[in-house]
Amino acid sequence: MGSAAAFGGGEGSRVVGDGSTAPESSSRQHEYRQPAATRERFGEVEHEDEDVSGSGAGGSQVRPSGGGGRGRGRGRGRGRRDAMDSTEALGRCMTAILRHRASDYGLEMQNDGFVLVADLLKLSKNTAAGIPLSSHSVEDVRKAVARDGKRRFGLKEEDGHLYIRANQGHSIRTVESGQLLSLVTSPSQIPVCVHGTYERFMDSIWQEGLKRMNRNHVHFATGLPEQDGVISGMRGSAQVLIYLDVEKAMEDGMKLYVSDNKVVLTEGFDGVVPTKYFKNVVKKLPRGREMPLHPSSNQPKPHENTAADV
């Protein structure tokens, strides 16, 4: 798994994979925030990937696909909208609704995350391609699911009806971990568990740990994006890798789950994965090299007891 070096006293870092704008404050710098114009006008054109929880101001790399005045912003937005075909736009719209906004549209969602495809296609909502959901067919949905390389969706047929769900990434609290995901019962099931994030978020991560923010879980991958069999869980642009000490976390009662598309998820403890469970934290360097990262001298080391740990 690369040359990730272990910390002498144990150090950690934190991961997510969305966003490029600077955080508003240290306490909120790793919260997922998607541009309002993108959300409201084009149905969340971004595929909100699984690694946006835990660290980083998610969504800030996504630019509204149109709107927002004259000139550069408008032109770039129009080009983005023109470039997106109907299948991609449908997939992105379904991702946002099934992960975050089902209740906003009155969709009945089961506790395992499934909704009726027929109900989804009744919504009077346009995708980023400007096509109403109600103009799409069940076959369009199947095509969008089949094309999605990260396997974000699951389908099932029951009593003659087709259902769809997002496999992970939810912020909808009625979706239950035990119904949506498979519980990890042994550390051997996930020999590698790594969260990817960005350097600008590390100060708050050292202080606060990995937070799920408005998501239901903190997300981890079972390897690096370029490795065989790793299809989801981390953005390829991640600069910092945080490896979880799975054995220690499970010994202390942390529940870990695996989604159908092989993303590792956890609620941590009260929504936080404390730094004492960080096994290795490394910075990615060119040509596949890695450099160990440590908290600054004024930050407590992950394995030291602090007032919050006691």
UniProtKB/TrEMBL annotation:
Compositionally biased region (Gly residues): 55-70
Listed InterPro entries: Ptrans_KptA/Tpt1 (IPR002745), RNA_2'-PTrans_C (IPR042081), RNA_2'-PTrans_N (IPR042080)
Q: Where are stretches of biased composition, namely Basic and acidic residues?
A: 27-45, 301-310
Q: Which domain of life is it from?
A: Eukaryota
Q: State the top-level EC class.
A: transferase
Query: What Gene3D superfamilies does its record include?
Result: 3.20.170.30, RNA 2'-phosphotransferase, Tpt1/KptA family, N-terminal domain (1.10.10.970)
Region of interest (Disordered), ranges: 1-87, 288-310
Q: Which reaction does this chain catalyze?
A: 2'-phospho-[ligated tRNA] + NAD(+) = mature tRNA + ADP-alpha-D-ribose 1'',2''-cyclic phosphate + nicotinamide
Q: Name one GO molecular function term.
A: tRNA 2'-phosphotransferase activity
Q: Which UniProt keywords apply?
A: NAD, Transferase
Q: What is its EC number?
A: 2.7.1.160
What the protein does? Answer: Catalyzes the last step of tRNA splicing, the transfer of the splice junction 2'-phosphate from ligated tRNA to NAD to produce ADP-ribose 1''-2'' cyclic phosphate.
Say which family it is in.
Belongs to the KptA/TPT1 family.
Designated name of the protein: 2'-phosphotransferase
Gene responsible for this protein? LOC112286316
